[in-house]
Amino acid sequence: MKIEKLIIKNYKLFKNIAISMNDDINIFVGENDSGKTTILEALVMVLTGKINGGSLISRLNLDWFNKESRNEYKKAIEDGKTPEPPNIEIESFLTSVAEGEGKLKQFRGTNNSLHADATGVKIEIKFDESYCDVYKQLIAENKIKDIPIEYYKVENRSFANPDYYFSVTAKKVANIDTTKKDYGSVLNRFVSGSISDFLTDQDLTDLRHAYRANRHEFTDNLAVKTLNQKLQESHSFEGKRIGLNLRENEIDEWKNDMSISLDDIPLEYSGFGTQNMFKSELFLLQNSEVDILIIEEPENNLSYTNMSVLISKLSKSKEKQLFISTHSSFVANKLGLQHLHLVAGKKASSLSDLKKDTYEYFLKLPGYNTLRVLLANKAILVEGPADELIVERAYMDYHEGKQPIEDGIDVITAGGIAFQRYCQLAILINKHVTVVTDNDHDVESVRTRYGKYGELVTLCVEGNNILHSLEPSILAVNVSNFEDFKSIVYCGKDIKTRTLKDIEEFMSKAQNKTEWSMRVFESEKKIKYPQYILEAIGIDATEDNLDE
Using CA atoms, how far apart are residues 30 and 325, in angstroms rounded to an integer? Predict the structure, then answer.
C-alpha cells in the first residue's frame, strides 16, 4: 500500500490543500509552524483513526479547525444566522504495490471530494445531524458562541463508502517521533521479543522462581521486620496490625523490571541522541513489514555522524514509502532534493514545480544551503562573501550588535547568475526575499530584470551607474572619513601614500575582496554604508548614516 495523494480540508493551517506524493520518499521542509507536523498528523489520522495514541473524538478540540473557517462560522453566529458547523476532512488516495493487497480493492469508489473513481480512505469530523433540533434551539437562545464540538462525530469511510477500514490500513503504518522521549512500547517489545526468542520454558520457570525468591528474601530482611514491628507498636486500625510488604504481582511481572543497558550503562542514563539512535533502530527492526514509515525530525538530538548513520538506514528502506519532516538541509540533501515538499504559505509545493532548468540547478547545487531561503524568516541574497560580510556588519551596527540570523534573517551568498533561480523559488513558496546586487553600469536594466517578480522580491541596487559594484559604492560614502576607512581596509606599510584610487584598485582585486570586507567586519571602528545596503537591512534611506 502506498499513498498517491493526500487532501486536507479545514484542519489547522490548511483550509484546502492537496499534496501529490512521491512513491518512495517524501520530505516536508519549512519554517516552524508552517504545517509540516500537521501533514504528518493528518496521514496518521486518516490511516489509523488515532492521534497521539488516542481516538480522534476523545482528543477533538477547537484548535483543530482551520482558523479562517472557524472565524467565518463565529462571524455568522454573531450576525444572527444559523450556519452549518464546519467539517474537517482528510482523504488518502491509495495504490496497491504488492500481491496480497486485494483487500484494498474494496476501497475503490467515487466517495471522495474529487469524485474520481479511485482507491482510498477518508475521515470526516462533522456535526452529528441527530442533534440538529438541539443545535437550532441553542442558536435561538444565543447559547452558541463557537463551533459546538460536543455535538460532533467522527466518520471513517473508504471511497467505496463502507465504514471502518483500520484493520487493513493501520497495520501498514509505523510512526517514529524523535521529538518525544516516550519509547516505552518499543523497548518493551524488544525485551519481550528477546525473552521469547532466547529463553526456553525451563529458563522462564527458573527466572520466575528466582524473582519470587528475591522478593521473599526482601520481606524476610531484618530491616523490614524491624520496620513492621515499630509500625505495629505505633499504629493500628480497628485492632488490626498494620504492616508494609511488597505487593503481590503477576507471575511474569519481572519482565517489567527488566532494563536495557549499553556497555553496562542503563539506556535511560545515556545521552538523548544515543537513546534516539537505539530506539529508532529498534523501531525499524520491529516494523520491517510496514509499507509506510512516518518520521518527525530524524535529526533531533543527533550528532552529524549519527544523523548520517540514521539517514543512511532510512534511505535503504526502499520497499517502504517514507514521510519525513525536517529542518535539516543535510537530511534533505542526503535523501534527495527531488523528494522535497516545500511547506510555506499554507501550501505544499515541489521543486519539480519550478522551471526545468531551475529545478535541475537546485538538484545539482553543492553543499547543504539549498533550503535556507525556505527556512529563514527573511532572506537577503547577496553577490559574494564580501557583500555578505558588509551586510552582516551593517546590520550589527544598526541593531545593537545583533547579527541578522538572531532576528531570523539569513544573509545568503547566491552569486549573481543564481539570483533569479532563488527568485523563482521565492515565488513558488510565496516568500519575500531581498536581493542585493551590483548595477554593472546599467541600473535600469537590473530593475527591469527583477521587476517581473513583483512585491515578493525587493531589489536593493546602487542607483549611480558609475558606482558599478560594492567597492566603489562603499568608497563613495566614506570619502569624508577616508583616512579612517583606509586604516581599516588596508594594512600595507605604504598606507600613508595610498590614494582613493589605489584603495579602490586594492579592494576590487578578486584575491582581496574577502580580506578587506573581513577587516571591516572585525573592526572596532564603524564605516558608512551605501543607501542600497541600508535599504537591505531595513534602515530608512533618508536617515543619517552612522557617526564616524
Answer: 9
Q: Average pLDDT, stretch 383-391?
A: 93
Round to whole Å and give the CA distance between 240 and 235. 9
Averaged over 404-431, what is the pLDDT? 84
Cα-based angle 254, 258, 264 (whole degrees, multiple of 5): 145
Amino acid type, 398: Y
Rounded average pLDDT over 491-496: 87
Cα 151 from Cα 258, distance rounded (Å): 45
Give the Cβ contact number of residue 292 at 10 Å. 22
371 CB-near residues (< 8 Å, 6+ apart): 29, 329, 332, 340
**H helix runs in 316-418, sequence order:** 329-335, 356-364, 372-375, 385-398
**Cα(346)–Cα(350) distance, integer angstroms:** 14
At 9, is the pLDDT very low, low, confident or very high (cuts 50, 70, 90)? Answer: very high
The predicted model scores a pTM of 0.71
Distance, in Å, from the CA atom of 439 to the CA atom of 466, rounded to the nearest integer, reads 9
Q: What is the mean pLDDT of residues 346-356?
A: 80
What is the C-alpha to C-alpha distance for residues 430 and 273, in angstroms, rounded to an integer? 35
Rounded mean pLDDT of the chain?
83
According to DSSP, the β-strands at 261-262 and 265-266 are antiparallel
Please state whether 87 falls in left (phi above 0), alpha (psi between -120 and 50) or beta: beta
Are residues 298 and 307 in contact, defined by beta-carbon separation less than 8 angstroms?
A: yes
